[in-house]
Records
---
Amino acid sequence: MDKLTRKELKSDKFALEVQHGFEFVSEHRKQMLRWGPPAMALVLIVLGVLWYRSYQSNARQEALYHAMKVQNSQISAQPPTGYVVTFPNTQAREDAVLKTWKELAAKYPSTEEGAIAEYFLGTNAADLGNLGEATKYFQTAIDWGNAAYASQAKLALAAVYGSQGKVKEGEALIQSIIDHPTVMVSKDAAVLAMADLIKSTDPKRSHQLVDPLRTSTRGAVSKAAISLEGSLSQH
């Protein structure tokens, strides 16, 4: 983003806002590790609103803000308001979400807003079981997004690969985050994702990854590690 420079991304205020988002992600990791579920979408919406309010807007940011509101829309007979977008039924909402993100991706290709659009297109495709489409969208988000957003797309794509039995491919993606963590995905979060990915194929190694994090001083990480370790007993 033109207004959201690398320097600004690393600023104390922005980093703190993102860190709060990470804590939420860690505490709700079971719901989020699948492939970029609706809960993750909500976190990114919250983070998006924060930086949208903090930095001067431009056409791309305004379009992204609108798309995020549609993504977070509700099924309701009540008319939409200035804060909440509503649709009368699930199909109408799905159609609007797909249309909004596709328009954003097409209008602003090779930009970070476009990369975020590709990410959400991927999450929605995965939720509908269209894993081939999801793979394409997530890869584009990785190629276009900066390191922070690309790391989120890598986790999502790794989960898709895991569901397809392509564990090695998923491992490679997550390892790249472990080696180079970001403000969106910390090293601890990536290690937990790796342990979750390999828990069926290599439970011993998965346990070795999780065990040190059980006593983490970060409550969210510790809780997530303990929860994941509990699931390892089933493998």
Note: The first strand starts at residue 74 and ends at 75.
---
Amino acid sequence: MGRRLPHPVDFLRPLLSCQSADEPVTYNWARFCDPHVDALVSQAQAAQLTDPAAARRLWAQADRIVTGQAPYVPIDNGGTAGFVSSRAGNYQASPVYGPLLDQTWVR
């Protein structure tokens, strides 16, 4: 059995639905509720098996609405930058450990 990829409903229902906005324990911290988005999600989910192309259009439409309303705004992209002198060579960085100083040489 193959690994299941993340699906739009796995994100939209728990994080951005009217139902999740009203639950006492919720992941919808923005308390986002748009009944039109909920209807699109339900339609897309229903169309998924019978008309995948229509489902993709509905998922995209729901995504555009949510993105346009911006209930969540990313404040960090998790990226890093390394600056080195022109005298340094073989600079390498690990996403876990940062700069690998033992790999870097200096003229």
Note: The longest helix spans residues 52-69.
